[in-house]
Specification:
The chain has helices at about 5-15, 30-45, 65-75, 90-100, 105-115, 175-190, 205-220, 235-240, 250-260, 280-290, 365-370, 410-415, 455-460, 490-495, and strands at about 20-25, 25-30, 55-60, 80, 100-105, 120, 155-160, 170-175, 195-200, 220-225, 245-250, 270-275, 295-300, 310, 325, 330-335, 345-355, 360, 370, 375-385, 390-395, 400, 405, 420-430, 435-445, 470-475. The chain is of the alpha/beta class. Helix 1 runs antiparallel to helix 2 and helix 2 packs across helix 3. About 50% of the residues are buried.
Length: about 500
Amino acid sequence: MSPLAGLPFARAEQDPTGSCLRDGERALDNATFADAVRRLARRFADLGVAPGDLVAVMLPNCAEIVTAQFAAWYRGSALVPVNPVLTDDEARYQLEDSAAAVVVGDERARGLAAELGIAWVDAATVHAGTGALEPDAEPDAPEPDAGPVAVADDFALVIYTSGTTGRPKGVLLDHANLDAMSASLVEHFALSPADTSLLVLPLFHANGLIASVLSPLRAGGDVVVAPRFSPDTFWDLVETHRPTYFSAVPTIYAVLDARTSWTHDTSSLRFAVCGAAPMPAELITRFEERFGIPVVEGYGLSEGSVASTINPVDGVRKPGTVGIALPGQEVAVVTADGDRLPTGERGEVVIRGANVMRGYLGRPEETARTVRDGWLFTGDVGIIDDDGYLRIVDRIKDMIIRGGENIYPKEIEECLYGHPAVLEAAVVGRPDPVLGEVPVAYVATRPGRTASADELVAHCAASLARYKVPVRVEVLAELPKNSVGKLVKGRLRELDLPHCGHG
């Protein structure tokens, strides 16, 4: 049996009344949570859900998603978390592509399930009656199974990539992947029963499910499920629930820094994690000094079960890097031909370890291109220093080639973040008839601050080589982001700008 599938029941046996999962006003102890998982697993069995089937869940952040995950694993099934803000067409694609047998959700999910001819479980009933027998249940009702049936090589999660390029792909993670990943995070962060995770990232993403839920539960700690992130309520949640850590994306840190105007009690927090996109070193330093919380930036992909490098909590943290390889993983930088590069040289980042995905659902060719000889080819450009710290330079596909010169947008973005008025910055390449491509920058300013396009161009020109200076800067109210809070450059490339010229 997968140790993760049996986790709720091991916790309930060891400490029945210990805190497990909190969600708003609801608090589930270990015994209550295990009971809810077992009950939902029985319902899945009654609906014909079998080992190897896929269970979809389409809900905003709530405890029911976590219960559905463990109930699916109880049956030897995998969970497919579907982003609830997707359009019907987008959600339908993921339900059909994964061939989900059942969907747990609200009335909207019920309509999609009926349309696709699959079973539906009303999310409102998942925890109903938990801790007490339902009216029609017999006290000695037989279990559908002797216990959780999932084993190491059973699929556990199908996580759909954000789809910034083409149709989203289903990343297949098995129990062995999640076992390795959660063990790695528990070791790196020294998680223990004393830890409480405050979940603010969405639960349809690997980061939320694995780093913020599975890992602390495995360590004996508990989880507070927050609703959608809001700077107006975030610090109240910290003061009320006293978490020891949270994981967030750079946008959240930037917004908290910009919109927090009074002092809060952050003493419960041991550390905070930043991932999903590069965080400006200057913002990390400012946030740490202002709020008294170590911010450890990390790096990873859903294809690598979420994290592969993270800065240490207690050791040397190097802002501007994404840290060192996590326990059990190997991270290297290679040439276009796949040859390993020495420290200090830039190339494609590759990852090897038990955390690397089984593949993309139904896409053997793409799997073969992405995972070669056990190495996950990330598509990211990086440099590893003499101490083993990785710095992400950019995405290979985002690199701008201007008149034969390679430009990495991240370098320009970091320069823009150094301007006191800049809250967010993104740089993309624009076609140019003479130079091939030129860099164009998009910026959103901090509340109450302004900066003109000319001022920002001059700011770049003061510290960047002339060929790297953006030919144009557009100041927008806010930059487009996906549901995880990651800047979406594809939407910026689609904006209809006048011809840029080539200066």
